[in-house]
Amino acid sequence: MEKLTCKNFEEFKTFEGKSLPTGDWIVVTQKMINAFAEATQDFQWIHVDVEKAKIHSPFKKPIAHGFMSVSLLSKMLMDLMDIESFAMGVNYGLNTVRFPHPVPVDSRLRLHSSITRIEEYAENGLKITWDCTIEIENVEKPACVAEFVSLMFEN
Q: Minimal CA–CA distance to 148: which of 85, 84, 80?
């Protein structure tokens, strides 16, 4: 995967309104789903009971939590960029989020995204609005569509 590479925020700001490179595939494993269930205390059988899902789920296997997909956005976005002056990032929120299609265990996901808006934030920061679509390999509908907002700070 090609990365968006910038020396600093001034250079990064020139990418406002542009698409980012397509992300690498990430495999959603049962181990990841179980860890997410543990962290969120959401142990609904459709996520964690493999045997019951084989019998009773319309997908015939467990599916990931919808919020697990959206929680991958920070990692997926940061994997797309290398900004030399970057110090840290913070999730600011979501303007919109939808989960058009469930993510069965062992699915491969990747991010398609663009930078909708970049605003100055504090002395050394930016508030970025990202348009994000998480694709599921070989599935027409995406796992997640979100307008995600984050803060980034530079040294």
A: 80
Length of the chain: 155
Q: Give the 3-state DSSP-derived string for 44-106, with helices as H, strands as E and coil as C.
A: CHHHHCHHHHHHHCCCCCCECCHHHHHHCHHHHHHHCEEECCEEEEEEEEEEEEECCCCCECC
Please, what are the averages of pLDDT over each run of 10 residues along the chain (155 residues)? 92 97 97 98 98 96 97 96 96 98 98 98 97 98 98 96
Q: Does residue 99 contact residue 140 with C-beta atoms inside 8 Å?
A: no
CA-wise closest residue to 21 among 103, 67, 82 = 82
Closest CA to 153 of 130, 115, 128, 126: 126
